[in-house]
Amino acid sequence: MWSPAPGERVAVTGLGLGTVVKATPRGAIVELDVPYSTRAEFNTANISLIEGAAGSAGLQAARTGAAASQNSPQGNGPPVAAGSAGAGATQSNYPLLSKAAPSASGHLARIGQLIGARPKPPGSGGVQVPSLEPGPGASATSGGTPPAAAPSPMPAPPLSDPGFEARCSLEALRFGLVPHRHIEQFTLGYEQLSKWINSSFPVLEPRVHKVIGAYGTGKSHTMSAIRTLAKREGYMVAHVEVNGEGMTLSDPAKLIHAIYSTLHSQEEETEYPLVGLLEKVIQNSTSSYLPLSGLRAVDAHLGVVSMLQHAGTLDIWTEQLEAVFSGSDEVSATDLDRALRKQTRASVQVFPAVPRYLLDRPNGLVESLLGTAWLAKAAGYKGLIITIDEFETENKHLTKAQKQKLMLTLRAIECYVSGQRNLPKVPLALYFGTVGDSMDEGDVYLNDLVEASGGSALELRFFQKEERLELANRIYRFYQEAYQLQRPYDPNVADRVHTLLDGRGYVESELLRQFIKWYMAFLDVLYGPPKEMA
Q: Measuring CA to CA, which residue among 208, 201, 198 is closest to residue 457?
C-alpha cells in the first residue's frame, strides 16, 4: 500500500494538484497548487500519487471531483447555515454537535459547491479562494504552477548526545537570553519565587499583577518563569514587550496581534492557535449545542468554525480565519466575511480582533483577551496568562496624544477587572513588568489596576556577590554536562571575573549580565569547546 512521502506530487480529490509536505498518521499534509499555496491535511483515501499512468488517473480524479460534487444529491442540498442544524432539528445559534455529522464522502462531495468560485486575479483586492482546477496549461506533472519545494526537516540531535539540552541553555546565556529549557536551575531563589507565581494564577476571575525591578534585577527572567510555571499548571500563555514606539498599549490593534502571535500551551505550539482553540471547544463540548460565552465575536466564530468543520472545508479557510482572529492586517474581516458568505451561501459573520474605530479599540482589546481566556477554559485549559514587559518605556517615548490612548487602554482594563462592565468573569491574568517609577502616571495607574483586581506586586532586587558565585557554580555544572568536562569546579575562576568587573567600574544594573558574559568567556578559554572535546 502506498504511503505519502515529502516532495511527492499528488492529486487531491476535488481540489486539484499539490505537493506532500509531511506524512501524518491519517494521510499527509499537502500544499495545494492554488494562488496562495494553501496547506491542509488529507486522508490517504483522498490523495493519489501522480506517476506515469497513475498520475493521469489521479489528475482526472482531481478534475472530476468538483463535477461529481455538483451532481451528487448532497451537493444539491441546502447550504449549511450558522443558525440551523438541518430540517426537523431544534433551533439553535449553532449546528448540533451531538447529531451525526455529514459523512466523509458527503464532505468531499460538497467541497466543489463550497469553494468552487474562480480565484480573483492578483491585485483585485479582497480574499482569494482556492481554485478547484489546475491553471491553464497544467499537466499531470506540472500542476499549472511550479511545485513548492518541500521544506527540509529540522536536524534532530543525535540520540547519543547527552549534552545537547545543556548546550542549548549555555548558548542562550552567551547571547544574553533566558535559558527556557532549564529555568528552574538558573533561577536563584526559585522556591520562593515559584510560591508567589503559583499563588498569583487566576482561578475564576481576572487578575492584574506587577513585577517591579530596576534594570538588571531579572524582570525578563521572572516573566519567563511565570510563563513556564503557568504552562506546567495547564494555562495557555502569551507575551509581548512594549517599547513605546512600534509596540505600545496605546495601539491595541498592533498589541493584540503581537500577543496572539506568541499564544501557545505546554503540549503544543501551532501556527493557528486561535482556530485550534475554537476546534477544541467544539470537540470538548459536553452539551448537544456549542456553549455560549456571551461575547458576540466568540459565539459567532464558534459558529463559523463549526459550520466549516461540518462542511469539510475548515482546512481551506484556517489561515485566513487565523489572520482575522489574531488581528493581522493581511486579511480584513470584511473581505473574509464576504468571501465566506459567497462560497458557503450561509449567514455567517467574522469579527476583527479589535474594532476599526479608534475609540472602540481599548474595550475591544479587553473583550478579545477575555474571549480568548474563555475559549482556553472551555477547551480544557485553566485559563490565559499574558506577560507585558518593559512597561516603563511607554513613559519615555509616547507623545501626549499617545499617552492619552494608553490611559484609555488601562482604564478599559480597570473597568473590566473591577466588575464595572457586565462581561463574563474569566481566568485571565496580566503581568506587567516595570521599574516602578512613582513619577510616571501610567506606572502609578498600574497600582490601581492591581488593587482593583485583587492582584499583587513582586519587587525584585539586585543580586549580591555571593549569589552570583552560586550562579557560577550552577553554570559550571551545565558546562560539564554539555562538553563532557571532568574537571572539578574551581571557585577561583568566578573570583577572577569579579576582580575584572570591579576594575572596569560597571554599575550595579550591569553586573549580573556582565558577570555571566565574562564567566562564560573564561570557561571557554580555560576548558571549552573545541579543545576539551577534541
A: 208
